[in-house]
Amino acid sequence: MGRFAPTRRARALALVLVAVLVLALALAAVDAAEAIETGARDDVEGGCAARFDDEEGNADAEGNAEADAEASCGCADAQNRASALGDMLEQDKQKTAQQQESSVKTTSAEKHELDSAPVFDELQAYIEAGHMDPDLVRPMPMVFIPAGEFTMGTDDPQIPGDAEGPARRVRLSEFELDEMEVSNRQFAEFVLDTKYVTEAESFGWSFCFLGTLSEKLREEITVQVQEVPWWAPVNGANWLHPDGPDSDVVLQDKLDYPVTHVTHNDARAYCEWAGKRLPREAEFERAAKGDLEGVLFPWGAEMTPNGTHRANLWQGHFPENNTGEDGYVWASPVDSFGAQNKFGLKNIIGNVWEWVADAWNTRHHLTAPGGGMLTDFQVEIAGRIDDPAVERVKKGGSYMCHISYCYRYRVDARSHNTADSSSQNLGFRCARDTDED
């Protein structure tokens, strides 16, 4: 028996070695799978990941292409209330529970109903003090957009992850669209008539670009959006106080600037009060393109034809320095720059982002069911207008857009945010069916 003992020990040792080898191979396989998954994800994020399904007539764009561009200006996921909550909790984790409670007020679940309408009260005080004339209302002119066909999207997407393509033909009925973005003056009329409280007021804060804040406010900022540190959730920022609580659109003569710090829900509420609605994404794009095909901008292919600036965009180096070569460093009045296309629309790109009705979707129908051109009916169904979706589409870009960081001021471009998010560079305009008075 004794002479067989070494053999048994050898066999036992061999079994142990085999088990270790199997475990090592399994771990290596897991690492390899993770590496492949990461590499595939990087490939998607770095380039085009559009897939065409010829049988269903759909196109699917996945991933987060141009990730650096997406994060740099903060015009999508990095700039929403959910992400801000995470950043607040992470950056404030060293604070006491009492300090956290006073500084973290965000997410839909934590939105609180106010016992009063403080902005309404402020407006009333301005009227009593003679700072505002309640009768000085400027009706919004609307432009007629005739029925017709156009090419929606593009086969040459600049940011594929935004599902800018593929190009598809769409036929729309006639409609009307506000000539300009809704202004602070017009929104004030709405608030005075309804005592409406925006979601930014209910949350107690909204997103502001640090460069627009006073030095005093900047010194008080303790929380910034990690992915885009030039954005910060600012307590007291809302449509009446767009640059924080020490700013004021009435006292600073900005009533004719675009209303901002409005959520998708706020925009819909205003449109309903005005007897209108938010434009569908297809309508917005049709109006922006006019009758032009294959162009980047409402007026044509060149950004500054004959050296003339046609839109309020970022010049210089983002985010440190905006030279203001177009005449404005931040937002501009709603009637600035004049008509951008044949329909007479103003600021249909640039100035501030604009909410549209559609839920965010990266899967587009190329044709109507059974073939043929897409029409209003298919566009509305695809847009899931009445779907209580979290993510909603916004169009047009803003004064913070720069070709090297947020090339989303093209007529084909699109972006998104959560319906309860608001910021200093996001507004809206209204649409109306022509059979409605």
From TrEMBL:
Residues 1-28 form the signal peptide. GO terms for cellular component: endoplasmic reticulum. It holds the Pfam family FGE-sulfatase. Keywords: Signal. It comes from the Eukaryota. Coiled coil: none annotated. InterPro entries: CTDL_fold, Sulfatase_Mod_Factor_Kinase, SUMF_dom, SUMF_sf. One of its GO terms (molecular function) is formylglycine-generating oxidase activity. Residues 142-432 form the Sulfatase-modifying factor enzyme-like domain. This is Sulfatase-modifying factor 2.
